[in-house]
Amino acid sequence: MPITPRARAEGLAKGGNALGLEGAKNETLSVLYFGVTFNSAEGSERVLTDHQAFVKSMRALAEARGVLHRYIMLTYAGNGQLVMESYGPESVAKLKAVQSAYDPNFLFQTLVTGRQKLPVAGTYQSRAVDIA
């Protein structure tokens, strides 16, 4: 899925974005999805382990070619990928400020299911396991 410079500029013009996309210069970002499906749970541990290794190798290749951006799209994230951290420390700080203002009792953080939450208070690391 492409994220064009114009789309990022429009987001910034309308109040910014929390995704940390500002550093992409004037280039289109390509978000890639490497999904796997299978019909039986048998062997799923091996399939998922191999899939994680493949994703790591693709990220390493992109980094070696100088085209890797830290952003990980939430809807395409693999189990354990650190989506919120991929937004960058500045965006995480802004999101934490919003959370403090609108959810000071951490209801969203604790009552809503799902793995992708803001990093634990006082750290930049979330509760997820980094496989990126």
Structural account:
There is one protein chain. Helix content is 40%, strand content 3%. It has 132 residues and is mainly alpha-helical. The protein has a two-stranded antiparallel sheet. Residues 126-132 have low confidence and may be disordered.
Helix content: 40-55%
| Uncertain segments | 126-132
Largest sheet: 2 strands, antiparallel
Order of helices and strands: EHEHHHH
Strand order in space, largest sheet: 1-2
> For the CA atoms, what is the radius of gyration?
16 Å
Shape: flat
The pLDDT mean sits at 83
Quaternary structure annotation = single chain
Amino-to-carboxy terminus distance: 19 Å
State the helix count.
5
Give the strand tally: 2
What portion of residues belong to β-strands? under 5%
Kindly name the structural category: mainly alpha
From the structure above, extract its key features:
132 residues, mainly alpha, two-stranded antiparallel sheet, 2 strands, disordered C terminus
